[in-house]
Amino acid sequence: MTNRCILQMALLLCFCTVALSRNYNLLRSQLRSSNSACQNLLRQLNGTYCREDRMNFEVPEEIEQPQQLQKEDAVLVIYEMLRQTLGIFRRNFASTGWNETIVERLRAEVHLQMDRLETNVDEITEKENFTWENTPVPHVRKYYARIVQYLKAKKYSRCAWTTVQAEILRNFSFLTGLLDYLQN
Ligand SMILES: *[C@@H]1O[C@H](CO)[C@@H](O)[C@H](O)[C@H]1NC(C)=O
Ligand SMILES: *[C@@H]1O[C@H](CO)[C@@H](O)[C@H](O)[C@H]1NC(C)=O
Ligand SMILES: *[C@@H]1O[C@H](CO)[C@@H](O)[C@H](O)[C@H]1NC(C)=O
Ligand SMILES: *[C@@H]1O[C@H](CO)[C@@H](O)[C@H](O)[C@H]1NC(C)=O
């Protein structure tokens, strides 16, 4: 009886792992297409012109060498980048003259990606012994906090937004690169 139970559990575990692997491959392709949609939308936010400030938001070291990231960390980093991006595009961009419809679509697309990642994120964070401090996420948060700080300091000016938009656009290409780490 016990043996049978163990066998069943082993089978179940096996099945779950397979399901998860498939899940990651599917996830990767979904995120990839959603990401390029986001980049296209961001490029359409070009109603006004302003020279981009040369700002260094100090990219976290851990992120600069993504090849050292574990798959789990990559998932958490991607999720956090999306969450922070959404937060930024909920801020006051009245000075930019951006098309609201485009921004709304961008937010919806980012949100969609977050929804797709949610199960994977829960799975990781609900593990025993999980702590955020052991992940690169706190560094990612600080990086985005510097971006927000900059926007605030510049009173959400058109030029500040141009700089931030360019930075976020580069982040999306970076994010696309991170997706390669969601392999099995
Ligand atoms: C903004 O970009 C879109 C798509 O690339 C283009 O069709 C449009 O003419 C551009 N708008 C301005 C003001 O340059
Ligand atoms: C905003 O973008 C949408 C979708 O591309 C377009 O239909 C609409 O005309 C634009 N609005 C303005 C004010 O340019
Ligand atoms: C959790 O941490 C404790 C104490 O550090 C350790 O004994 C245990 O093996 C860890 N469990 C897992 C699943 O890593
Ligand atoms: C944002 O984009 C830059 C430029 O590609 C990249 O180096 C950086 O790592 C990105 N930021 C984060 C938090 O990943």
Task: Give structural notes.
The chain is mainly alpha-helical and about 180 residues long. The chain has one domain (about 20-180): Growth Hormone, Chain: A (Up-down Bundle). It is about 70% helix and about 0% strand. The longest helix is centred in the N-terminal third of the chain and has 43 residues, at about 1-45. The chain binds 2-acetamido-2-deoxy-beta-D-glucopyranose (NAG) (4 copies). One 2-acetamido-2-deoxy-beta-D-glucopyranose binds near residues 128 and 129.
Rounded mean pLDDT score: 85
**Overall CATH architecture:** Up-down Bundle
Distance between the termini: 34 Å
For the biggest sheet, the summary is: none
Number of distinct beta strands: 0
Strand content: under 5%
- The CATH topology is Growth Hormone, Chain: A
Low-confidence stretches: 14-18
Helical proportion, percent range: over 70%
Total domain count: 1
SSE sequence, one letter per element: HHHHHH
Overall 3D form: globular
- Structure ligands: 2-acetamido-2-deoxy-beta-D-glucopyranose
Count of separate DSSP helical elements: 6
Going by helix content, strand content and strand pairing, the class is mainly alpha
Radius of gyration in whole Å, from Cα? 19 Å
Pfam family, one: Interferon
InterPro entries: 4_helix_cytokine-like_core, Interferon_alpha/beta/delta
Main location: secreted
Keywords: Antiviral defense, Cytokine, Disulfide bond, Secreted, Signal
